[in-house]
Amino acid sequence: MKYDVKKMSLARVGMQRIEWAERQMDVLRSIRQRFERQKPLKGVSIACCLHVTTETAVLASTLKAGGASVVLCASNPLSTQDDTAAAVVKFFKIPVFAIKGENRATYYRHLNAVLDTKPRITMDDGADLVSLLHGERSAQAPTVFGSTEETTTGVIRLKSMERDGVLKFPVIAVNDSKTKHFFDNHYGTGQSTIDGILRATNILIAGKVVVVAGYGFCGRGVSKCAHGMGARIIVTEVDPVCALEARMDGFEVMPMEDAARLGDVFVTVTGNTSVITMAHVRRMKHGAIIGNSGHFDVEIDMKAIRAESVRHYTARTNVEGYEFKGGRTVFVIAQGRLLNLAAAEGHPASVMDMSFANQALAAEFVKKNHTTLTHKVYTLPKELDDEIAATKLRTMGIGIDVLTPKQKAYLSAWKEGT
Ligand code: NAD
Ligand code: ADE
Q1: What CATH number is given to the structural domain containing 52?
Q2: In Å, how far are 292, 294, 337, 405 from 298, measured between CA atoms?
Q3: What are the tens digits of pLDDT across the range 277-331?
Q4: Residue 405, in any domain of the structure
Q5: 193 and 301 housed in the same domain
Q6: Are 234 and 308 contained in the same domain?
Q7: Nearest-CA neighbor of 375 among 196, 186, 208, 130?
Q8: 72 in the same domain as 204
Q9: Residues 316, 357: one domain?
Q10: Is the CB of residue 346 below 6 angstroms from any atom belonging to ligand 2?
Q11: Which atom of ligand 2 has the smallest separation from the CA of 53?
Q12: Which of 7, 31, 103, 127 lies 20 to 30 Å (CA to CA) from residue 272?
């Protein structure tokens, strides 16, 4: 079996951590039990390009239990947990190509290695495998049944491809399931971003001014978490509706140009480029801390910060200081890459449980329906989304009411008035 991980001797520790995650992934575990019985993925090869974490390991083992042959590479050069990668190889016999801190050349060598296995289904977090299959490896695209996409940024790109009529196979936008973005993006990114800031800097959040760029699903989670820990929150937005929601949720709203002077900590979660530029950094306080939890490392203009700084040094693990003329310094977490995975462990398992339940069901959906699906971006059927939420509630020991026949009839009637 070919693979490329940092150190196989880390496997035992990795396996302990995978087992810890698995205990909190009840929905995915129940899917795995069904997959073991029914083998719905029998004979299908699946290439996953995801953050190599303990939660991803549980997903990979679920796909394998369903009868698939699985290979895994990283969807970000900094998010790999090297112990997990070793454990997946040793204990699940699944080839992994991922090393934390790998350079760009190795990152793409690893993506190409998983595509060399000629997968029928690809699973992306950020559309990197799909991009290769529409670029230098486009000859391979006709052999792909379909793909699944984990994150907002990936889905935006895929929808642009669909709009331009260039998509070469169907894609399931896992991010667009309610049981994904309502929970993973919101609660997961909220908590794990604060976790990443704390592990990297060990600062006290209480009393700080935290500027959150983007008040979408992730941004509102980050704002709420930081506010809950005693920070004053300033939100920057470009969408008037989201900006208004932020204001009515009790947060200050202003342009980044003004927020730049006030913030102690800055977090970008927009999925957009050049949200914090050198013009903003010039206005920031001495000692300001800047980080990003958006998918790509384009939200903070690191190139400009590097170019204008006169000195650059490691202040702590995952924190770089950039000193400018006159001595003013700002600190950047994880080189502007998504800090919740680079400086912490990503979202907790109990929220990834629902995201990855969607991924497992999306793989099954592609296998079952690929002959009738067209080259479009699909959302999983509502019944599957509802089933994931219902299972999650059940495993949390929470019951809910059920519509009575009278209520059902009332909700579908249009003749009843006052
Ligand atoms: P979203 O579309 O719900 O929200 C993004 C918000 O950013 C929108 O309200 C938009 O108006 C705003 N925005 C865009 N440009 C802006 C700018 N220049 N200044 C201020 N605001 C701006 O998206 P989301 O689901 O919150 O995802 C945001 C990013 O986070 C994406 O890149 C996504 O892929 C990523 N993501 C990361 C993780 C993680 O684990 N780190 C998890 C989920 C999503
Ligand atoms: N994205 C965010 N958190 C994650 C995690 N723990 N595992 C895989 N992908 C993630």
Answers
A1: 3.40.50.1480
A2: 9, 9, 8, 52
A3: 999 999 999 999 999 999 999 999 999 999 999 999 999 999 999 999 999 999 9
A4: no
A5: yes
A6: yes
A7: 130
A8: no
A9: no
A10: yes
A11: 7
A12: 103
In a domain, 124, yes or no: yes
How far does the centroid of ligand 1 lie from the alpha carbon of residue 131, in Å? 20
- Residues 49 and 356: their CA atoms lie apart, in Å, by 13
DSSP codes joined into one string, 91-153: HH---EE--TT--HHHHHHHHHHHHTT--SEEEESSSHHHHHHTTTTGGGGGG--EEEE-SHH
Residue 416 has a pLDDT of 74
- Which CATH number characterizes residue 298's domain? 3.40.50.720
**3-class secondary structure for 265-330?**
EEEECCCCCCCECHHHHHHCCCCCEEEECCCCCCCECHHHHHHHCCEEEEEECCEEEEECCCCCEE
Residue nearest to atom 40 of ligand 1 (CA): 189
Domain limits for position 276: 189-342
Centre of ligand 1 to C-alpha 298, Å, is: 12
Q: For the purposes of burial, counting CB atoms within 10 Å of the CB of 34, is it exposed (0-12), middle (13-18) or buried (19 or more)?
A: middle
Instruction: Return the DSSP state at 401.
Output: -
Q: How far is the CA of 59 from the centre of ligand 2 (A)?
A: 11
Give yes or no: residues 215 and 166 share one domain.
no
Distance 11 CA to ligand 1 centre (A): 34
Number of domains in the chain: 2
| Å from CA of 271 to ligand 1 middle | 4
Ligand nearest to the CA of 295: 1
**Residue to mutate, 55, 79, 152, ligand 1, most ligand atoms under 8 Å from C-beta:** 152
What tokens does 71 get? 């290979």
- Does residue 275 line the site of ligand 1, with CB under 6 A? yes
Q: Are residues 262 and 355 in the same domain?
A: no
Q: What CA–CA distance (Å, rounded) separates 187 from 206?
A: 19
Which ligand is the nearest neighbour of the Cα of 126?
1
Flag whether 332 is in a domain.
yes
Nearest atom in ligand 2 to 75's CA: 9
The pLDDT > 70 percentage for the chain reads 100
Q: How many CA atoms lie within 13 A of 290 on its CB side?
A: 34
Q: Give the DSSP per-residue string, 188-254.
A: IHHHHHHHHHHHHH----TT-EEEEE--SHHHHHHHHHHHHTT-EEEEE-S-HHHHHHHHHTT-EE-
Distance, in Å, from the CA atom of 18 to the CA atom of 21, rounded to the nearest integer, reads 5
pTM over 0.85: yes
Q: Which atom of ligand 2 is nearest to the CA of 347?
A: 3
233 and 118 both lie in a single domain: no
